[in-house]
Amino acid sequence: MPVPVQQVFSFLNFDPDKDGVPVVPIDETFPEEAANELASLESFNKHLYRPNTYLHKWWARRSGTTFRYILKQLVADPAKRDFYEPGGLEGKIILDPLMGGGTTLHEAVRMGANVIGVDIDPIPVLQVRASLNWIPVEQKIKAFKLFFNALHNVLYSFYQTRCPVCQELSEVQFVLYGLRRRCGCREVLFVDNLVLRENNNKPSIKLCGVCGEVYGTAEVHCNGGHVEAAILTKGQVKCGICYSPFQDILEEPFPQRYRPLVIVGVCPAHSQFFKRLDEDDRERLKYIEMTVRNLHFLELHGFNIPTGPKSDDLHRRNIRSFLELFTPRQLIYLHTAIRLLADFPPDKRLWLSLLISTSLEFNSLLCGYKGVDRRRPGAIRHVFSHHAYSFPYTALENNPVFTGKTSGTLRRLFFDRVARGGRWAMLPTERRIVNGKTIEVKIHGEVDGGQAVISFDMLREGDRRFYVFQGDSRQLPLPDESVDYVVTDPPYYDNVQYSDLSNFFRVWLRLFLPEEADWRYDQYASAVFEGEDSQAGKYAAALAQIWEECARVVKKETGRLVFTFHHFKPEAWAELTISLKRAGFVLLNRYVVLSENPTSVHIRTLKALKHDVILVLRPNSANSERPQWSEPSRIEQMDSYAFSRDCGAALGWFLNAELSEEQIHSKWKNLLVGGGRNNDKASG
Ligand SMILES: C[S@@+](CC[C@H](N)C(=O)[O-])C[C@H]1O[C@@H](n2cnc3c(N)ncnc32)[C@H](O)[C@@H]1O
């Protein structure tokens, strides 16, 4: 449904104090339609919409436009409540105790608030510090050039090959590997596809499965020559000779389970080429393997993969160390980066380290090749394209110091995430839909950055100050009633295993920035359900303590706790209910918006949960009446929007009802597994 212009709600008649009870705009209204329209655009282009927030990988970020809408509904001055008006939160203190990628903080700082951000994991803390800190882009460009040139000088010779036409030394752009597998009679190599590249107006580039040659002619080419092993494509389950199934080779270290098959390079005279490895390339790889054996960090401890819901996928493949997830050449890249980063002053080292760390998503043996399609040359399937580890057939080893700005290279990442992000931060842009067309609107008067402070007291004056620290939000070092609003996006029960997944980056970041964070923090204190039966109740217990702290620090009558949530499991809703009940919150209202991360669900006919519910709560107080919610008899399970709306309304009722925690579990189970009639809010 088209939404012409942002819904400007006129609150000129807005009654800030209804019957003696303070009312905040979001208690009564939220522009769901306008927010959804922008969120659905943003979800495909999150990094383009808010480039300054995407310095480092973090999982399950919510849409920035949704959070801007939420924060705009907290603005007291009606003239500043419009989405495209700058500011509105000057003089306010906003807390996000579970800040993750920092969406709330960035949006609130832009609007002039002073903000507090806390996360138990060091990575979000480092990222938010780096991205909110005000360093002129020109300074960053200068520092990056210095760093890149030093890195390139050390590494370029490891990424060279000869052009198949003129034999001149050329830059490697990336290398494709095949996965070794065995059946009862032989060893073979598996790839996703024997087509390497589709071309416009000329034959595709292909790999011969018999001789291993790379060719670009229409006819099938085979030189009949020796090939180490036949090359098969994924999907072939059994051997055509002995009919036994192909098995993975689990007893060898992970890097040795792959064989390099194709080099893609760029010759200054003959442009891009795909070629089979020659003798020279094999010699270079042997030299790289020898070099890596002498690298100092291989002796360091701390690379062992811990057990965990997602890490166990690595264990199941007999991968025991994070070092195994990289080729020898990628390890040389990391080793060189550690050495060079130490020479940079702390402010520059911070974002440079985050850049190297995030580049690992595109520079690991878990990266796959998705550059076959003519529209996506050189595209990489990065490590966390899903919220889990996946294992490619065609693995892609990228050249991080490639001088072009192709996918996953350091230069590309720097320009996308640092330089463009920094320029955007000086004059943020929003999108507006006019007659079905999207136009860009510059928000003059806003900047996405501020001044770091090191204590709460320093937030009492000034604008756009940020106090960001690593900590467990079950105990917040903040005074009572010191915060205007808590706006957050908590973990959704078991949806994303942040602590477990982020080990992939953490083992390296701790070497880049040893002094900048507490790398030995207790990962199991996080408010996430890791899936073990023995942990039932852990999520409710941790969140309850966090909400209790929020209830303590937020201002009593005017303060609000606003957060987004979705889940299809009754246990998730039951534990969320218990946590809020223990902390004494009541639900004032709920709205439904498109979610950034739809999840497949397994209830009735609902195939995917595409929405988040925005929950607006306040600490229960003797002075105000509880908002009324009718008892739910049924949750709509045919439609994602209605499901989210009903669950939100049901939560409102649960928070008012006198029920034991056992009854809460059983009633939610009944509602989500059983049937009945729709429920709705009785009154707000
Ligand atoms: C859903 S993420 C937040 C996402 C974020 N709002 C964004 O848009 O990117 C939830 C965060 O809560 C953090 N967290 C979990 N338990 C915590 C605790 N006890 N104290 C502080 N942070 C915690 C996790 O590390 C994670 O980064």
Task: Kindly describe this structure.
By secondary structure, the protein is an alpha+beta fold. Among the domains are: 139-408, no CATH class; 557-684, no CATH class. Helix content is 30%, strand content 20%. The chain contains 18 helices and 25 strands. The strands form 6 sheets. It has an 8-stranded mixed beta sheet, with helices on both faces. The structure holds S-adenosylmethionine. S-adenosylmethionine binds next to β4.
> Helix content range of the residues, please?
25-40%
Q: What hetero molecules are bound to the protein chains?
A: S-adenosylmethionine
**Integer average pLDDT:** 91
Structural class: alpha+beta
What distance separates the N and C termini? 27 Å
Characterize the biggest β-sheet.
8 strands, mixed
- The count of DSSP E runs of length 2 or more, i.e. the number of strands, is 25
Question: Number of helical runs?
Answer: 18
Beta-strand residue percentage: 15-25%
Physical arrangement of strands within the biggest beta sheet: 20-21-4-3-22-23-25-24
Shape: globular
Which residues form runs of ≥5 with pLDDT under 50?
A: 1-14, 675-684
CA radius of gyration is 27 Å
Kindly list the characteristics that best describe this protein.
single chain, 684 residues, alpha+beta, 8-stranded mixed sheet, 25 strands, disordered N terminus, disordered C terminus, binds S-adenosylmethionine
